[in-house]
Give the backbone structure.
Amino acid sequence: MSIFTPTNQIRLTNVAVVRMKKGGKRFEIACYKNKVMNWRAGAEKDLDEVLQTHSVFVNVSKGQVAKKDDLTKTFGTDDLTEICKQILAKGELQVSDKERHSQLETMFRDIATIVAEKCVNPETKRPYTVSLIERAMKDIHYSVKAGKSTKQQALEVIRQLKETMEIQRAHMRLRLVLPAKEGKRLKEKLKPLLQVVESEDFDEELEMVCLVDPGCFREIDELIRCETKGRGSLEVLSLKDVEEGEEKF
Amino acid sequence: MGLTSLDKIIALQRNPANTRNLCILAHVDHGDQEYLLNLIDSPGHVDFSSEVSTAVRLCDGAIVVVDAVEGVCPQTQAVLRQAWLENIKPVLVINKIDRLIMELKLTSQEAYTHLQKILEQVNAVTGSLFTSKVLEERAEKEKEEEEKEKEKDGDQVYDWSTGLEEADDSQLYFSPDQGNVVFASAIDGWGFSIQQFAQIYSQRMGVRAEVLLKTLWGDFYLNAKAKKIMKGAQAKGKKQLFVQLVLDNIWSLYDAVVTRRDKEKVEKVVTSLGVKVMARDSRHSDPKVLLSAICSQWLPVSQAVLSMVCEKLPSPLDMAAEKVEKLMSVGARRFDLLPEQTQELKKAFLQCSSGEDAPAIVFVSKMFAVDTKALPQNRQRPLTQDEIAQRRELARQRHADRMTADQTATENKMESLTLKDPKPEEEEEQKETFIAFARVYSGLVKKGQRVFVLGPKYDPAQGLSMLPEGCSASDCVPEVPYLSCCSMESLYLLMGRELEELEQVPAGNVLGIRGLEECVLKSATLSTSPACPPFTPLNFEATPIVRVAIEPKHPSEMPKLVRGMRLLNQADPCAEVLIQETGEHVLVTAGEVHLQRCLDDLRDRFAKIEISASKPIIPFRETVVRPPKVDMVNEDLGKQQKVAIIHQVKEEVTQGRSSDTLHVDPSGLVTVTIPNRMATVSVRAIPLPEEVTHLLERSTELIRSLEQVNMSLREGKTVDVSLRTMEAIAGLKAQLENLLQGRKWRNAVERIWAFGPRRYGPNFLLNSVEGYQRLSVWHCLGRGDKAGEAGAAVIRDFDNSIVSGFQLATLSGPMCEEPLMGVCFSVERWDVQSSAVPQHQDSLEENSISHEALANSRVEGSTKTSSEVEGTVAGQSQARRRPEAASADCYRPVSGQLIAAMKEACRRAFQAQPQRLMAAMYTCEIMATAEVLGRVYGVLGKREGRVLHEEMKEGTDMFIIKAVLPVAESFGFADEIRKRTSGLASPQLVFSHWEVISSDPHWVPTTEEEYLHFGEKADSANQALKYMNAVRRRKGLYVEEKIVEHAEKQRTLSKNK
């Protein structure tokens, strides 16, 4: 048994409200869902696909339209379309479900791409593929934070992945040339920072080729510059120590 | 046909004359002689034709089975071709004749014509193989003659038909009267050759068997009145002899037994045939049982086929000299050019003797994996009485021990339990053992014997000169290329799935060898004599073309996958496995069915993990082109419209970044100022001519060594470079100068600053800064190194930052972060305010810093973030500079900023030109018959392929089509083309080059004609845009795409939540 009764509250469905406070007053416009972000990014070019109506409201859910005087006073024009565009560009909005979803997905991919670029399989010295990293990220239930930059999150992911799989950041190959006097002393200091010393040549100068973690680079650079007062030098031979070319079994 | 004892088989192996190498070991009594048949069954699917190749190599003869209803299929052709190439003799079995009776309901007369047609088809295939060979030989001969004739000029008349007429082909064809055709229905258990009927009827009709043999197949009929066999049955409307005497009998038998179920008639037939039928069979409700009971006694299929095999197929002793020469002469080398000792081996081949002194020659055609448990030495055998007693004793003792242990110390129990050694890990790895599938061609092979393993590139002449006289494999062997030694741990007789261990195997037999997995990858030649040449490689009908990337389900199982793929590679003759630079593990297989089997093998046997296969990552390149002269509808772009386009581009750029640090002028010159306003740099992007790009790509290795020489020179060291390298570098320079001509490129080669990306790519940086002289990349050639010293010292110190910025920009372009190709960046202006430069500078340090920045600044998709980075860097620098202005630290960010600025400038300059995507292309050769040509074109067209040319292969009805196809469209191509052409066309894909995709990914209609043609949104498929977006989506970059297309068409949420 159902009798149609008018409800005392009217919910807005499929409306995304964009608000803006300007000149001490609040203005709202009624837009379609999942469209505002596209408009801001420039993917949607048709304004009618974004706006439900070209009128500017004080309160969309109550249907109160803004007064013309207020509009001209705050925006300096009474062209509603122009005002709508301004509000669209600068107003605050609640991000809709699909928008958020696609944003997080894009970030997730981006993080995986960064991780795949920076890391190698330590056994084979070959990079992992992006899809493999993505799967590994899902396995450890990594959730993307929309507020943090993808690069920051990628470093976080690398740390977490190390626990479940064989992965490490690709090493940099450096060549250090140190003057003989400071050579020995400096070497002791550098030792904990160097991962692998590939070759070492000590005649007039100490020349070393070594692999280091990219995170330590700044530290090493600082150390050499300060300790040798500019006489020692450091050269990057390769940024990423990875295997190149195809390999057939 | 029962199982025979092993001893008997060993005894039979010694007699090569009675050996027929064909797989499942079977032994037949035939007349008085006993034969040993090595029968190798091979799969019929096209994807597994590699298995056929491996089998065919080891055989002397082959039974080709053709379906009586379907006739000659593509695979039949392929198989016949393979048999032909390997010089082995085929015999034909036409099977499933019962289908003609039961399914197609043909009359015996119709069936005869049908069978005749099939035979003709098969012979046509053989015939065309033969003619193409003859023509080829003739063409070769002619070429030689022509060369000779060149000096004299005689007007020779060439008659093409002579070659064919001279060659004898009568032995080649299948014909029932030759005795190399058997008609059979294996399901009902019958089969016959003409001979059998000829014998039966010669007694019954009193005609000589030889006469019947000749007339039983063909257009002959029996004149009952004259009691004569006459020619011309068809013309006179009479039944052929074959129909009357053979087919009619079979037809009536089927009619009586299966169709009408006439008990009386059946009995009559049974008695007339002299066959005994068991009461159980005749009462069976399924008439097929009765039928096969009768037939298998009347015309047993096994006997028909086996007697044909024994009579018609050659024994190892009859191996043709031609085949031996073909096996022994690798590649284009002629047999008579091989060393003398090697030629002598031919005798050993032909004799096929198993004497002690004959050199052992073995060919391994494939390696296959066997469960270690299945090996004979590991198999469980029934225990002898003694062993059982021994075991009982042991068990008793163990029991006693346990009792005492229990009594002494109960607490020790725990320890003893935990002490149980954990070795299952080790065992699991040894689960698969590789067995070589091989044949002995000469000599006697013994268990534990040491032999030479000859790789495919081994040269007997070289080997003989390096090895001492009379050296054997058991001696210590000096290093000879492509030669190694190993011992055969055990020899096996292959009995279907079973393996029987053998002590020795004489010549002419097929065997399995264990212990070769270390030195034999897929196939090899083994010999006791170093004079033996490696056999010609197997010719595979299908080459691997289906590529997939394989990944483990759980990333931690990577090592298991790698090991599994290694095993798979060894076990499968046709699968290829490789690791790409991107880290993908790629499996290349012959077809989808083959792929499926490889994946199953990996999952269940070799890797034992869950895996997933996906489309491999497809690489792209980014480039710029000259502004187009015509628009998308081929209308000439007028001056005005051109301006409009540029205006639009400019507007876009300035709208996006209306900042004061960036300026783009209409001609495409981009000027970027670094955030602290200490330096500006102006860059222009210019497309390189296609030939230059190709040249640079070809000489990657050379440029890399050039770069190394330069680097060491810069440090003041001298390196020894071979004269040849220097010449090659000079040659490259000359070629570049040759290609880069015209006003725009004046003196350009001298001004090349660097190559990129990674310092050796197909792009370069051009120094067009006025008044800035620097060492060119060619300075190692020793010219003008003094001139380079002059110039503004101020900016030289930042030289490296510019190069680094350029390297970064070329490594990942703005379209979808793929490397650039064929782009020249010309630096036209570059100012650095001297205050930015500190007093003491170390250019080496500069270098290091630039790289650091390089490492830290990941190429940002959106320019916003990178400008933020720049901003913070600048902020830091200023903050630091205030306290101590002249400190060594202050210059640091300037070089970093310069890198970012240079990169930004390059990207912007790139975007100011018309951008294009470059796709990797395969060249694709397709062999197809005339009927399916149209469908091949259809598939190519659908996948954006382009046909370069097509031609007919001489002497056959095959066309050879050469086409190019984007790699991006190649996934599933081979399979589709096979499906659409019912297997009559087979493509081969090889990577060839990069090609610019002509459509602009950022294109929108601008002119009126374009609006008319494409509409406002231009959403008709833009290939370049599709590729670009796919890559961007994969990498997680921003894709300009609407989340929902139509705002109004979204799902309406319920009112009350």
Q: What stands out?
A: Chain A has a mean pLDDT of 83. Chain A touches chain B through 70 residues (CB under 8 Å). The longest helix of chain A spans residues 97-118.
